[in-house]
Design brief:
This protein has about 110 residues and is an all-alpha fold. Helix content is about 80%, strand content about 0%. It has three helices and no strands. InterPro entries: DUF6112.
């Protein structure tokens, strides 16, 4: 029993008491290029959301005018999904920063 307590005391002494790591802009080469690529992907996502919204609205209108409830409901769902995708894409940086700050408060 004494050997187990001695081992636990040794492990507690070896482990660091406080780890402080933060994001680093200069830690790796290419961080600026990666930010540019992520910004371009966000732009593509927003453009595709607008395209999906237009196509879904056309499908919704066509389904409504042709008395096809299945097609109209598919168009409605497409409009909601494309709007949700645009919201998530536009708010992605804010969401990540929010959850990063929440994670920093966990102790």
């Amino acid at each position: 029993m004494l050997a187990v307590l001695d081992t636990l005391t040794t492990i507690a002494v070896v482990l660091p008491a406080n780890v402080d790591i933060t994001p680093n802009d200069s830690g790796l080469p290419g961080i600026a290029a990666l930010r540019t690529v992520v910004g371009a992907v966000m732009t593509i996502g927003l453009i595709l959301s607008v395209l999906a919204l237009i196509v879904s609205a056309v499908v919704w209108g066509f389904g409504s005018n042709s008395s096809n409830p299945h097609l109209a409901s598919r168009g409605k769902v497409g409009v909601l999904i494309s709007c949700g995708a645009a919201i998530i894409t536009g708010a992605s940086v804010t969401l990540i920063n929010f959850f990063w700050n929440v994670g920093q408060t966990v102790s």
